[in-house]
Amino acid sequence: MNKIECVPLTKDHILQVYEIECLSFSSPWSIEALKDELLNPTARYVVAIKDKKVLGFGGMWLILDEAHITNIAVLPEYRNLKVGSLILESLIGVGQKEGTLAMTLEVRVSNINAQRLYSKYNFITAGRRKAFYQDNKEDCLIMWRRQ
Ligand SMILES: CC(C)(COP(=O)(O)OP(=O)(O)OC[C@H]1O[C@@H](n2cnc3c(N)ncnc32)[C@H](O)[C@@H]1OP(=O)(O)O)[C@@H](O)C(=O)NCCC(=O)NCCS
């Protein structure tokens, strides 16, 4: 069986990434928004693939010496199998290579699985924004990781 590897996002992956977006988030990014990221000079995206099937993806924007993680998601049937860990490790590696000093992200207070993933990679909660998410007015936690 071939192993799972993380590679940079290309246009060939966009449809599968969009499907994962729709299966993972209440307000998914559109295909156009995902395609725009391929042209965004600050964006870095990776996909976890096995036999050409995209199992998950993650992305970030590099702004000065900080990386802002925009999204990370795994196909529901492949969750809790370390695919998210692989994607996050890959983003951390890209950030380090490009000289970022810190990474940050927002996560729903109810999203305990994602918070566990981030804690495993030394992200620490540094703040909370009230009613950050428009759909249900849920708060977000702001997490940071120093490289
Ligand atoms: C969050 C998400 C990306 C994690 O991906 P994943 O492939 O399931 O994560 P991993 O298998 O690498 O697990 C990483 C850690 O998270 C925790 N975790 C993940 N899923 C878990 C579950 N179902 N139950 C308990 N802990 C869980 C564990 O601590 C795990 O570490 P461990 O296995 O070493 O104990 C995935 O659940 C997902 O796509 N969720 C929907 C989209 C989303 O919420 N994205 C985050 C937005 S901020």
Describe this structure in words.
The protein has 147 residues and is of the alpha+beta class. The protein has a single domain, classed as Gcn5-related N-acetyltransferase (GNAT) (Aminopeptidase, 3-Layer(aba) Sandwich). The chain contains four helices and seven strands; from the N terminus they run E-H-H-E-E-E-H-E-H-E-E. It has a seven-stranded mixed sheet, sandwiched between helices. Strand 3 (53-63) and strand 4 (66-74) form a beta hairpin. The longest helix is centred in the middle third of the chain and has 15 residues, at 83-97. The N and C termini lie far apart (34 Å). The mean pLDDT is 96. The structure holds coenzyme A (COA).
List the helices and strands and how they pair.
Elements: E1 5-8, H1 14-24, H2 31-39, E2 43-50, E3 53-63, E4 66-74, H3 83-97, E5 102-108, H4 112-120, E6 124-129, E7 140-146
Parallel strand pairs: 4-5
Antiparallel strand pairs: 1-2, 2-3, 3-4, 5-7, 6-7
